[in-house]
Amino acid sequence: MATRTEAQEKQSAGSAQANPFQAIVMMAGGVVLPRCLHAAADLGVADALGEEEQKTSDQLAASVGAHPDALFRVLRVLSSNGIFEMTGRKVRHSPASRLLRSDHPHSLRSLARMFGLPGCWNAFNEFGYSVRTGIPAGTKTLPKGLWRYFQENPEAGRIFNEAMVGKAQVQVPAVVGAYDFSRFGTVADIGGGRGHLLQAALEANRSVHGVLFDLPNVIQDAGAVASDRLKLQAGDFFKDALPAADVYTIMEVIHDWPDEESVAIFKAIRKAAKPGATLLVIEQLIPEDKAPHWAKMLDIHMLTLLGGKQRTEEEYGELLRRSGFALERVHPTRSDVSIIEAKAA
Ligand SMILES: C[S@@+](CC[C@H](N)C(=O)[O-])C[C@H]1O[C@@H](n2cnc3c(N)ncnc32)[C@H](O)[C@@H]1O
């Protein structure tokens, strides 16, 4: 019997082989799909639908301030892809559209909005530049960089930080379940955003203390997680000293950076680390198979926006070696991220 991955490979390659014309047309013009999702998330259509059994697209358009026929057509595309359910002009929630509600405990509304933010989306207008040169198109569209864009646009920064909590909701329990933090005194989460990983690690390990390190505008947005066991430290990992700790977590931060900057971040951790400290690099590794996989798509976002990349285990081993760490083992988790465990060499 084919494994799930083999089946996926066959299915994706098979549909393009069975109908190559359709495959090219759908992909070439497929940009409408994310744009419809961004618009629905921005407008708050899922919130406007609420828990009601159903509403018409005209009622929803009136609630969110959209053009009735335009919103109907957007919802027709989304519902034909499983986001909302439609019968004629009547709209109901699907499991996926419920995740677009702001009040859903696992809301992905901000994640959907984040990919559509001008700072993120506009880089794709210059995508050809990235493909020709390997240089992120973001250097053209955001000359001061993405992190400065979030500092200068607080609402965009808030959406990004909230999006990170949303994207990590499956990763965080999986990481805390896959790794024993109880033997450590202090854990520092570098580039930890709103502190969602650190807070969960400390909740599961009552004797452990933590330090959340991130840029000042992000730390300002993370006040809710501070406690006598969880301290906040604002700074820039290229300029400022990092906190001393027994174990460092750094989740989906290194994928934002090219190799040289990644080595500089690891070296800054190495410099601050207590003797014998452990480093846990938490990332989505590029799978070896040919099936469609989110890590392969995320890799293109990194190429375009930031000049970072999704890496293989071997590539992380090499970066760590250049930074004075030795990769010890890789812990898979029940989510899309793996924990790459390293020790100061
Ligand atoms: C992709 S987010 C990951 C957030 C969180 N670790 C997670 O996985 O949910 C990258 C984080 O790196 C932080 N960051 C970027 N540049 C930084 C710098 N120079 N110093 C400290 N943190 C930085 C960002 O503010 C952001 O919170």
From TrEMBL:
Residues 140-325 form the O-methyltransferase C-terminal domain. InterPro entries: COMT-like, COMT_C, COMT_dimerisation, SAM-dependent_MTases_sf, WH-like_DNA-bd_sf, WH_DNA-bd_sf. The active site is at H255. SUPFAM superfamilies: S-adenosyl-L-methionine-dependent methyltransferases, Winged helix' DNA-binding domain. Gene3D superfamilies: Vaccinia Virus protein VP39, Winged helix-like DNA-binding domain superfamily/Winged helix DNA-binding domain. Pfam families: Dimerisation, Methyltransf_2. Residues 28-100 form the O-methyltransferase dimerisation domain. GO terms for biological process: methylation. GO terms for molecular function: O-methyltransferase activity; protein dimerization activity. Keywords: Methyltransferase, S-adenosyl-L-methionine, Transferase. This is Hydroxyneurosporene methyltransferase. It comes from Eiseniibacteriota bacterium.
